[in-house]
Amino acid sequence: MAVLHRDALEASPLADDPYLTEHFLLSYFPASIAHEFASDIPRHGLRRELVVTRLVNELVDLMGSTFIFRLMRSHGAQAVDAVRAWIFAEGVLDVVEQAESLRSGAENQGAQAELAGLIALESAARRACGWAIVGIDPNAPLGDQIARFKPGFQSLCGQFETMLADDERERFERSYRDLRSAVYTEQMALGLARLGFADHLLNVLSLGFETGAPPERCARAYFALGDIIEFAALEAALEAIGMEDRWERLLAEDLGAELRDARLALCRALLADREAGRPDALHRLRAGRERQFDAMAEVMNDLRTLPSLGLPALSVAIRTLARLAAAPGADAA
């Protein structure tokens, strides 16, 4: 990655983003020099080279040399877009700080505990990057976007697991149990299990920005949908699609986007029903969409009989769900 894409990064507007200047250029110099020449350093003749070198070194040290390549391959993204997504994800999730905590704590726990924690952290960062590739404005300053999402993300991270239902609750609890047996503290295991839902929390926050609804209300509506639609099973099946065939991976990514869009559309319908509580709102969501809900239930029943879920079956299921989400219900009347 460092060899293949350094020139493209240095030539891109990303290298001049003020957030990168602050994090990678100003911190390169001793504090006294950075303070005295704060207005001159951003005009340093080698600023782009310094910023990109330090950025690439940090990224490769934390995520490995193939992380950006795999993002590009699985999301059909350009290198600059994948790196921009990483910077956003690191800023919102505090990946550097999390990794430093893992490494310092592992001194007394051994390499296996550190490795398990870093693998979980890499998975969370990958989810957040996948969201950011399509979810953030490539022309907006990164610092502004990180500042917009980070407070809400940190707040939701401390409470959202109480809102999970059925398969998503099971997924969270399984992740926590696995991490608790691998890493060295309960709090670290809990924090990493929470970060495993990073893409969902970013969905919730973007929905809040769009609708003006409080993040907690958006989160309750978003995760309540897991009571009636098996999102976790569909997501797990998509993630299990191999990376070997580029076209299959891109199709899986497109289906994942359709799945996300369908969930957000249904969540908007729930949020529009301001008069109903959670159980009643879920019941009312069916009104006017009974035929589509029945079709979705039939497809999911059929999927359970299959020994494994390939792309054709997943395509049928997710597009059935998309039709359900697009159907006008009684809530739209």
Protein described:
The chain has 333 residues and is an all-alpha fold. Helix content is 73%, strand content 0%. The protein has helices spanning 2-11, 18-25, 31-36, 47-63, 67-75, 79-93, 95-105, 111-135, 142-157, 166-180, 186-195, 198-211, 215-224, 231-239, 246-272, 278-286, 290-304, 311-326. α10 (166-180) packs across α11 (186-195) and α12 (198-211) packs across α13. The longest helix is centred in the C-terminal third of the chain and has 27 residues, at 246-272.
Concise synopsis of the structure shown:
Helix content is 73%, strand content 0%.
- Spell the H/E element sequence: HHHHHHHHHHHHHHHHHH
Please report the distance between the alpha carbons of the first and last residues: 52 Å
Helix content range = over 70%
Q: Please, what is the oligomeric state? A: single chain
Number of domains: 2
The residue ranges in which pLDDT falls below 50 over 5 or more consecutive positions are: none
Number of H- or I-type helical stretches: 18
Structural class: mainly alpha
Radius of gyration over all CA atoms, rounded: 21 Å
Q: Strand portion, in percent?
A: under 5%
The beta-strand count equals 0
| Largest sheet features | none
Mean pLDDT reading: 86
Q: Looking at the structure, what is the overall shape? A: globular
